[in-house]
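Title: Comparing notes on inverse folding

I've been comparing how different people in this forum approach sequence design from structure. To keep things fair, I'm posting one structure and asking everyone to reply with a full sequence. Here's the target:
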């Protein structure tokens, strides 16, 4: 089978997906470099070299699955069109969306800015977790390493991304999210470290860490006070403490044991008010889990919008995959 040098190399979309083609091999990564798909492909190389629109067919198009094994996200279509890649992604909850990837020289990930010398000296020392019942456990940053309750000590980087240079994140040394267990981010937010979390179809509360002397004065984000809930239906689970899930950082990448943190089923209470939702178009609070239309503006509550339906935060862009305030999947 023939392959095209027009396709071989690196392709980037900007801040969602990156692809590398090497003859019949496709490696696909998300914007933090984590590999989400490795598969073979086949296509008509001669047609592509002639400049014709060419369909590229992955042997395995699925790059995310539900715990049941069923497809969650997949490549519905991948086409070469006039020097660009058009990828049609299908997410079983949100439907289809097309991304455009362009070929780049020298490899992708130029959007990542490592800012260790600027940021880490200010963060070194001990951080206490904020909890409803008072100060919790201790997180420590020593040199370029992070540990939790004395466990871990894995090296980290402080980075920002071109799509939002004003925000700073702590990520493992290899710049992927894999070393953070279930956490999808640890953000440096003023005098706090705020962690976001997505576990399967559960939207978990943030954890907040601050210097011991600042615990009484920090403004805790509402997302850190919210109870965990299922993104697929009514809340069904809770964690003993938000900090408990941070133990996911104790995996081998951080020198730890990668323990599982137990989740207990929440007792049903028919007298508890349902969790409010927020209109995706105007941000109005909707006190119903089943309402299909906003009572204020009449907008049907489907698809993407300007506001996060979980917390009402106004989104910077409509193409975000997660809310930057509460971490809810959009």
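Reply #1:
Here's my take.
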């Amino acid at each position: 089978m023939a392959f095209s040098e027009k396709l071989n190399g690196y392709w980037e979309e900007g801040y969602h997906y990156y692809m590398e083609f090497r003859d019949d091999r496709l490696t696909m990564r998300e914007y933090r470099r984590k590999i989400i798909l490795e598969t073979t492909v086949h296509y008509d190389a001669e047609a592509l070299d002639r400049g014709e629109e060419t369909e590229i067919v992955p042997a395995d198009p699925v790059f995310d699955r539900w715990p049941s094994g069923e497809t969650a996200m997949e490549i519905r279509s991948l086409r070469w069109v006039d020097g660009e890649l058009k990828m049609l992604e299908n997410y079983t909850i949100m439907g289809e969306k097309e991304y455009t990837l362009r070929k780049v020289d020298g490899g992708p990930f130029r959007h990542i800015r490592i800012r260790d010398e600027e940021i880490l000296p200010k963060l070194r020392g001990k951080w206490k977790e904020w909890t409803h019942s008072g100060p919790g456990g201790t997180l420590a940053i020593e040199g370029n390493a992070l540990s939790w309750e004395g466990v871990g000590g894995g090296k980290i980087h402080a980075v920002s991304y071109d799509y939002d240079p004003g925000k700073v994140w702590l990520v493992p040394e290899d710049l992927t999210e894999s070393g953070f267990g279930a956490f999808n981010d640890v953000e440096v937010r003023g005098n706090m470290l705020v962690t976001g979390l997505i576990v399967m179809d559960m939207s978990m509360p943030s954890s907040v860490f601050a210097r011991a002397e600042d615990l009484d004065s920090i403004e805790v984000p509402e997302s850190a006070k919210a109870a965990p809930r299922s993104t697929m239906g009514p809340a069904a689970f809770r964690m003993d403490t938000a900090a408990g899930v941070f133990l996911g950082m104790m995996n081998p990448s951080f020198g730890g044991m990668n323990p599982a943190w137990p989740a207990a089923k929440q007792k049903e209470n028919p007298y508890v008010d349902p969790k409010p939702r927020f209109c995706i178009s105007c941000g109005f609070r909707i006190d119903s889990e089943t309402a299909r239309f906003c009572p204020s503006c009449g907008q049907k509550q489907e698809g993407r919008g300007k506001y996060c339906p979980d917390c009402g935060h106004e989104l910077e862009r409509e193409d975000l995959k997660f809310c930057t305030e509460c971490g809810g999947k959009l």
